[in-house]
Design goal:
Pfam families: DUF2063 (PF09836), NGO1945_C (PF22106). With 264 residues, this protein is mainly alpha-helical. Helices cover 55% and strands 7% of the residues.
Length: 264
């Protein structure tokens, strides 16, 4: 009986110690380390946790890391470590958790507006950089199309978007953001992009006009329609006249996409 009680007390003590340690590691600026631990050794763990998280995030979000000041970037990582509770044990998924953190983040006026100015485009930029990483990690599925396919072939056969291409739309021109270009407000027109993995397995972007974006969306959802049928459906959904010029323009768009090797 005494052994069971002692074991239970030991487990409780260990759990309390672990909670105290993790609470400190999450917020060392506000929380004191467990008293029974050597300060120097605790400091090693503290720096190791922060540096590992910061290194992973700065690698995953190089543009965000470049446009924020070093002080602002470190403060954002500290906030993520302190306030966010990740839903996955995989370190490789940390960047996805960071995007989720930003999507639910409520800025503190004292910390954010007066000390730092968090750009309005930050969430969209984080999403864009995360998608780049996701596409880079994918293996391409075999394609049923051939490089010599003509516009006529693309109109008469069933075509779909390949698995390593993704249409995206943003308020901000996220593909242009850099230390030298940081828009303060979104432009009048949204930014439509096609992110894709090229033949060298590098992720690239292709800027789309609105009509092309709607066509790519239909390609991504398609299972049985030919190129001609897709263009007809597109014209109906956008209430456009199905003129010969429309189909010529649509066939040209399909040929452009085929040249990028993003069609199946």
């Amino acid at each position: 009986m005494h052994k069971v009680q002692n074991d239970a007390q030991t487990q409780t003590s260990l759990a309390q110690h672990q909670e105290a340690m993790t609470t400190y590691l999450r917020d060392p600026e506000q929380i004191a380390p467990p008293q029974q631990l050597d300060a120097r050794r605790v400091g090693v763990y503290r720096d190791l946790v922060f540096n590992n998280v910061e290194s992973q995030l700065s690698t995953s979000f190089p543009v965000i890391h470049s446009v924020l000041t070093e002080e602002h970037w470190y403060a954002l990582v500290r906030e993520f470590l302190r306030d966010y509770r990740a839903q996955t044990p995989y370190f490789s998924q940390l960047s996805a958790e960071f995007v989720d953190f930003l999507s639910h983040r409520t800025a503190n006026p004292e910390e954010d507006d007066q000390v730092f100015h968090t750009p309005e485009f930050l969430l969209e930029l984080a999403h864009y950089e995360r998608v780049e990483l996701d596409l880079f990690m994918l293996d391409r599925e075999p394609s049923s199309l051939f490089q010599q396919d003509t516009e006529e072939n693309l109109l008469t056969r069933v075509i779909t978007l390949c698995n390593v291409a993704l249409p995206l739309v943003y308020q901000y021109p996220v593909h242009q953001i850099s230390p030298d270009f940081q828009p303060s407000e979104p432009p009048a027109q949204p930014t439509c992009l096609l992110l894709f993995q090229d033949d060298q397995e590098e992720v690239r972007f292709f800027e789309l006009q609105l009509l092309a974006y709607h066509l790519v969306i239909k390609l991504a959802e398609n299972q049985h329609s030919t190129g001609y049928d897709l263009l007809t459906e597109l014209a109906e959904s956008l209430q456009l006249p199905t003129t010969e010029q429309f189909y010529e323009q649509g066939a040209g768009l399909l040929k452009q996409l085929h040249a990028l090797n993003v069609l199946n």
